[in-house]
UniProtKB/TrEMBL annotation:
<dbReference type="InterPro" id="IPR028994">
    <property type="entry name" value="Integrin_alpha_N"/>
</dbReference>
<keyword id="KW-0732">Signal</keyword>
<protein>
    <recommendedName>
        <fullName>Repeat domain-containing protein</fullName>
    </recommendedName>
</protein>
<dbReference type="Pfam" id="PF13517">
    <property type="entry name" value="FG-GAP_3"/>
</dbReference>
<feature type="signal peptide">
    <location>
        <begin position="1"/>
        <end position="32"/>
    </location>
</feature>
<dbReference type="InterPro" id="IPR013517">
    <property type="entry name" value="FG-GAP"/>
</dbReference>
<dbReference type="Pfam" id="PF03995">
    <property type="entry name" value="Inhibitor_I36"/>
</dbReference>
Length: 410
């Protein structure tokens, strides 16, 4: 019996994902007894035949590729507390049809959607599976009334970042729970939201801040679980070329922040805070790698988020925004030599409610860099417009994009 109406996923997918399971799926051989009662309570089970008959697969989480079960599911039993989304395409492709169900059981051939019988190629199970099934919540989606505005025709070097396809709008990268990396563009942009690729859950840090190899295209740095730092050169269309290994040993760094030109040599640099609480500047070499690092100072264990937000105080130098463990937000004005002047308080408290902060440059189109904050309880991104004042302060926030709690944005 079908328990809720189907939805058709919206959006465009420009790459086909071939990924593994997000959570363990256990195949159970056909047994003498059959029917829905074979499915353990608290589990999702799918069956090769209608009415819970035939072979059974116990599913523990989302599956982007059903493997040997591709186009074999005829019925299901959802005895979890979560909804399940069934998709006709692998990778939960939003170009294809999908339908969601809540707790209960049913056979596709006996439902108003017989087209799903032996035609399902991926599924999602979890507290937000309903959203993944019904709309583009797998990645950040800009709101119509608060989308990025066109930037001034010419921005100073300290503000020319965050635009992945050179169309004059700030863009977003987001990684979802399946390890898919997506690019989101403004509605008026010539670019389209697109899947960059899969497997990005192997990365423990993701950071970007404009051009790092001198080709005027937005680049990306990613650290993998083994501590290797990789450079992903941007293609200028929201995707990346072949990655280049920067080096190993980066697991000693608690946080990384691509922050633009901190040293005043015209090349973009990287900041890294190590586990001992020391902050380091890694001067860029203009080719995607770095020269010998320089010590900024100690005591940075009190900071749990570093953001290369751009020139927040209009002095034509790249600055750093940092959140401390008490939830306060600080501006560290760059001195143009790879270090910082005396910090200034720009947020009195409550910033620990955000899972992450990000700098995308000028989002509002006023020529000043802004700050983005992920509010997971609201499934939204907040935009804090920069004032450009000497204090580096921020204006009142507004919601400008939707984003589920398990999606990371940068």
């Amino acid at each position: 019996m079908r328990l809720t109406s189907s939805r058709v996923l919206r959006g465009a997918l420009t790459a086909v994902l071939t990924a593994g399971f997000v959570a363990t799926a256990t195949a159970v051989p056909a047994q003498a007894a059959d029917g829905y009662d074979r499915c353990p309570w608290g589990s999702l089970c799918v069956f090769s035949d209608p009415l819970g008959k035939g072979q059974m697969l116990i599913v523990k989480g989302g599956m982007l590729d059903l493997g040997s079960w591709d186009n074999r599911i005829s019925s299901y039993a959802d005895y979890t507390d979560w909804p399940v989304c069934f998709s006709l395409a692998a990778g939960l492709d939003p170009r294809q049809g999908a339908t969601h169900f809540y707790t209960g059981h049913g056979s596709f051939d006996e439902s108003p959607e017989p087209e799903y019988d032996n035609a399902v190629s991926s599924l999602d199970l979890g507290p937000e599976a309903d959203d993944f099934c019904g709309r583009e919540s797998r990645y950040a989606v800009f709101q119509w009334d608060a989308a990025p505005k066109p930037r001034p025709a010419a921005l100073p070097a300290q503000g020319a970042f965050g635009d992945a396809n050179a169309d004059g709008y700030a863009d977003l990268f987001s990684r979802n729970k399946f390890g898919q990396l997506w690019t989101s563009h403004a509605y008026d942009s010539r670019g389209k939201d697109r899947l960059v690729g899969g497997g990005w859950n192997a990365m423990t840090q993701l950071t970007r801040h404009g051009d790092y190899n001198g080709d005027a295209k937005e680049d990306l740095y990613a650290r993998d679980k083994s501590g290797v730092l990789w450079f992903y050169p941007g293609r200028g269309d929201g995707t990346f070329g072949a990655r280049v290994r920067v080096g190993g040993g980066w697991n000693t760094m608690r946080d990384l922040a691509a922050a633009g030109d901190l040293t005043g040599d015209g090349r973009a640099d990287l900041l890294a805070a190590d586990t001992a609480g020391t902050l380091w500047t890694y001067p860029g070499d203009g080719k995607g790698a770095f020269k010998a690092r320089k010590k900024v100072g100690g005591g940075w264990k009190t900071m749990n988020e570093l953001v290369g937000a751009g020139d927040m105080n209009s002095d034509k130098r790249a600055d750093l925004v940092a959140r401390d463990t008490a939830g306060k937000l600080w501006l560290y004005p760059g001195d143009g030599k790879g270090a910082f002047a005396a910090r200034k308080l720009i947020g009195t408290g409550g910033w620990n409610a955000f899972t992450e902060l990000a700098g995308l440059g000028d989002v509002t189109g006023d020529g000043r860099p802004d700050l983005v904050a992920h509010a997971p309880g609201q499934a939204a991104l907040r935009l804090y417009p920069g004032t450009g004042a000497a204090s580096g302060g921020l204006k009142a926030p507004k919601t400008f994009a939707g984003l589920e709690s398990n999606v990371r944005v940068f």
